[in-house]
Design goal:
Elements lengths: L8 H20 L3 H14 L4 H12 L9 H22 L11
Helix pairs in contact: 1-2, 1-3, 3-4
Pfam families: ANTAR
Organism: Mycobacterium talmoniae
Protein name: ANTAR domain-containing protein
């Protein structure tokens, strides 16, 4: 029996990095390359593994922080991208600046 190439830690890590890049693309309206560079730079500046930061970013964006997350990474996510995540949630929930305008 062969192993499934679409499962396992390497595949899961790649999926998390892709998802985190997608979050940054949505927040920043930037390219995937810019999102990757921002994630890598932020991880380096805060001396965190990029995958830990990516996991925390995705969890916070999903509003589902989990206990197994690196708490330092969660704090960095909230400090670096918290305002953008809050604004995105406000728009999604209808509480953003457009919510009070008439059609």
């Amino acid at each position: 029996m062969g192993s499934d190439p679409t499962s396992g830690p390497h595949h899961d890590g790649g999926r998390i990095l892709d998802a985190a890049e997608g979050v940054l693309v949505a927040l920043r309206r930037c390219t995937l390359a810019e999102a990757f560079n921002e994630l890598a730079r932020t991880a380096r500046e805060h001396r965190l593994p990029a995958l830990s930061l990516a996991r925390a970013l995705v969890a916070v964006a999903e509003n589902q922080p989990r206990q197994e997350l690196n708490l330092d990474a969660v704090e960095v996510v909230r400090n670096v991208w918290g305002n953008l995540l809050d604004r995105l949630r406000d728009r999604r929930d209808g509480a953003g600046p457009m919510a009070h305008q008439r059609p």
